[in-house]
């Protein structure tokens, strides 16, 4: 075998075959290299729920400490603060999760309807979400 540069006496292989000039992941036939709106929807909804829960828990802690500031540190005060943290956490997680669900659903529907994936879909989904949320009487 002339011109070959074996890696070792045990592996008689031309190192040029080991060079990878393509992507290192395998895509199913017909799949895009970027994630579409539908795939990102799950990340968006979950992320918003977790962010809402964290924000609500901090807000609940703040409100709980403020409301019980005249009480001595005791079990009833701790329970009251914990209740406020839990209630606010759930409230904010629910609110932000619902908004993310609406936004994602509108985004997917608009993208499928228009057959295009651009910033106009994002603007339309955000506008429709805001309008629907505002129309329910929420501030």
UniProtKB/TrEMBL annotation:
One Pfam entry name? Tim17
Stored PANTHER family: MITOCHONDRIAL IMPORT INNER MEMBRANE TRANSLOCASE SUBUNIT TIM23 (PTHR15371:SF39), TIM23 (PTHR15371)
What does the UniProt record say this protein does?
A: Essential component of the TIM23 complex, a complex that mediates the translocation of transit peptide-containing proteins across the mitochondrial inner membrane.
Task: Give the protein's recorded name.
Answer: Mitochondrial import inner membrane translocase subunit TIM23
Q: Chief location of this protein?
A: mitochondrion
Name the GO terms of the biological process aspect: protein import into mitochondrial matrix
State the membrane topology. Multi-pass membrane protein
Which protein family is named in the record? Belongs to the Tim17/Tim22/Tim23 family.
Q: Cellular location of this protein?
A: Mitochondrion inner membrane
Matching InterPro entries: Tim23, Tim23-like
What GO molecular-function term can you cite, just one? protein transmembrane transporter activity
Origin: domain of life: Eukaryota
